[in-house]
Every structure is written in C-alpha cells, then in structure tokens.
Amino acid sequence: MMSIDRKMAIAARIVKEIRRDRRSVAMIIGAPIIVMALIGFSFQDQKPVLNQVAPALIATMAMFFVFVLTAISFLRERSQGTLERLVSTAVSRSDLLVGYLAGFLLFALIQSIIILSFTLFVIDVEYSGKIWDIVFILLMVTITSVSMGIFVSTFAKNEFQVVQFIPLLITPQIFLSGVILPTSQLPGYFQTLGGAFPLTYANRALHEIMLKGASLSDVSTEIGILVLFALGMLVAAAVTVRKT
Amino acid sequence: MTIPTSTGITDMEPAISISGLEFSFGNRPVLKGIELEIPRGIAFGVLGANGAGKTTLVRLLIGRLAPGNGTALIFGQPPGPALADSIGYMPQLNALYESLSVRENLDFFARMLGLSNKDHRSASVDRVMEVVGLSERADSVMAELSGGMRQRVSLGVALVHEPDLLLLDEPTVGLDPELRASFWEHFKKLTEAGTTILISSHTMDDAAHCDTLGFMRDGRFIATGTPDELRQSTGKPDSSLEDAFLHLSRASA
Predict the structure, then answer these.
(1) Is any Cβ of chain A less than 8 angstroms from the Cβ of B85?
(2) How far is the first Cα of chain B from the last one, in angstroms, to the nearest whole number?
(3) Which of A37, A136, B74, B90 supports an S-S bond with B158, CB 3.0-4.6 Å?
(4) Does residue B87 belong to any structural domain of this protein?
(5) How far is A58 from chain B (nearest CA, A)?
(6) How far apart are CA B107 and CA B113, in angstroms?
(7) Residue B146 contacts A where some CB pair is shorter than 8 Å
(8) Which residue range(s) make up the domain with A135?
C-alpha cells in the first residue's frame, strides 16, 4: 500500500527525535569538525598532501557518521518494539525506507555542508570544480550509507554489535578506497577488492571534481556505479526491514 | 481519507477462528494444535503461565509470525496488512517513542494506521487521550511518564482508530488495582458497543472480568468456557478461578 502521508510522517518523526537528542545533534555537527580540524591543522605545512587526501576524507566522514546514526536508530526501532507495532499497521517496506531516507538525508545534507565548508574555508583546502557537484556526490554517499545502516541493523541485536560493524565495514573501506594511500599504490588484489566498496567510487569522483575541476558528466561512470550501490543497498534493506 | 470500518467484512464471520494451529521456533514447538472460535463482541481471556504460548498466539494473529500448520482467520480473512485497519494491537513491550510526547506518539501511530486527515486524526487523538485519562499530560514526553501512564498510552495507540478487534498482550501487567479497574471498565464499554477483545494475561483478577476464558498450557487450550463454567469444573462449591486453573492444569498434565 503506497502512502505519501506515512512516508512524510516517518521522516518528520525521525527529524523530531534527532533534534530532541542534543548529544546526537552535537555529534552530527561537532564530531566531523573535530576530526577534520585535527587532520587539517596537522598538515598545514604540507598543503599539497592535504589537498590530495581532503576529497577522500570528506566522503569518508559523510559515510561514517550517517551509517552509525541510521544503524543505531533503526536498531532502536527494533529493540523498543515500535517496529513490531508498525508492521501490525498497514505500513509498507517502502514507507519505512523512504521515510527513513528522507529523515536522515536532511541531517546528512546539513552535515555534508558543514564538513565541506569547514574543509574548504577554514582548513583552506584548495579545490576546483563546483561546490554543488561535490554536495551531489556526498548525497549519493549518504543514500548508500542510510540503506547500509538499515541493512546492517538486521544483523545486530544491540548497540555494541552495531559498533562491531565499524571495523568490519568502514575501516577496510577507508583503507581500500584510497583515503590513506591512493588506490593506484595499493597491491593489485586490494585494488580489485576496493572495487567492491562504494566509497572507492565516491572518492574517485570527488578527487576528479575537487582536484581536476571535472564536471558531473566527466565522472558519470562513478556516479552510475554509486547509483547501483545505493539501489542495491536499498533492495537489501527492503528485504530485511520487516524482520525483527 | 480512510476511516477504518469493517470494509469487506461480513457480519457472519466470527471475530477469530483458529483450527489446527501449530507453530515452532526452530525445533521447539510452541503452539501444538490450537482450536478456537471467538464470536464478536466479547472479551476473551487467554490465561496461562509464562511460556504457555500466549504471546506467540497473538503474534500469529497480527501476521507477525506465519503458522507452521493449520489456519488462523480474523473476520474470515488470514492475518495481513488488509486487516490492519480492523485490528488494534497492544504489544507486551510498551513500544513507544521515548522522546515524543503522548500526543505525538498517538498522532504518529494514527497516521500509520491510515488516519491521514488531520482534523479527523486530531479529534481521534483527543478522544483517546480522554479515554485513557491522559489529556492533561498530552504534551509530556514518554521519558517523563510513569510505567502505568506509558501503558495507558500504549493502550491508546491500540484504540486510536476504533478497531473492531483488540489484541492486547498482557495489558494489565504492572498496573495498580485502580488503573486495572478503569481499564476493565473501558473494555466493558467497548464490548457492549460490539468490539471484540482478546486479552492475554496470567492473573486470575483479569480472568474474572472476561466473558469467556481459555486456559492455555504448554501450547494448547486445556479448557474454555465462561468463568462460572470453569469454576464449576472442579466439582467443589466456591472454587476460585485459580483453583479451577490448577485443577484443570493437573488433570491435563
């Protein structure tokens, strides 16, 4: 049963819940700034290095925080029993997924803009390309990340287990997608493995846009792959969403 | 705009009819052949010890679990989303959003239940807050409420769309006697108006209020009947329901 009203209600509820959770709001805004500041100011004497790693760092931050937020908040939906109550209503998978996506995208967008502004204007990373193109790529990352959070929450019984997914899913991505070393310097088999993670394509696209002034159409291959990842994760989330 | 009505439901069908219902969690059988027919407009109490299978039965009725064998029909239809408008479900856990207020919780679930018209919904929410006696705490968030109050909100969610059938999983656990009495007063009004209520409980105090009872033990109903009939089953005068339950329980073991 399709219902715009239900999707809007779910999104509005998520926004309300997060806004009232001041610590989460502080984390959404503060945590990425602290991390970026730490890295940014450590590399002030090595600007070229900073310029090189910044695109990948921005994407990683956007992915990481949204993933943790979504996974935990969906897990709570399961553990407090509200998901069970919801499925006893006529709520559909698409209501839940679209509602969650819309609710979290708002925060993700705000967060991406904060991370980006801080990186570009406070740490003063040099960039070319259009800002909105960068934001667009970050949004693609977030859609994938929200879906991944919902999907992963199926496999966790509590908050501790969600946290265990960070070294399992996020850390390898950080390494394999070229945040620490450019992917071209990784061994061949790691480059192949890196191809299995969405962050690799997001980093590549941001790299092209921010360092070489590429336009969205120049990185359409990467965008296409990101869309596939987002869709794949959405389908995976949809399959598991009604399980408790 | 959808006002929940008994759409497509004929008045002929019983509220609940279950036959040969079996269910296992893995290798562990939980329900072992349930036979049950509940007519409309009564309060039916499912009585049994912890682990007897009461919650599993309720979860099968809301369509959360699928039966291994046998059938469960609600108003003649198998459980599923199509029946959502006709069923009010109160789970054992309060299952509410901690950071939302009483009104916000009720409003949210009312929207999920298909009350998309804002005025109609807001009237329903006001009415239900009146019923559960929380009008004055409308704007308090869950975290500020006592256990009994949360339970009243939880009941409110089950009532907000005026369903034809209420499935209440241990709704009176942890309630003080006064609140329990007021819950039952309201349940009485509802059944008189034609609503069917299935209520699971393990206290004999609830049992006495029900029109019909089913004693459940180890995944089966060992006896069903009115409280009086069950009391008489012991063969002794002035037996309590508790005596009856223990008597029947031992007889079936």
Answers:
(1) yes
(2) 52
(3) B90
(4) no
(5) 31
(6) 10
(7) no
(8) 4-240
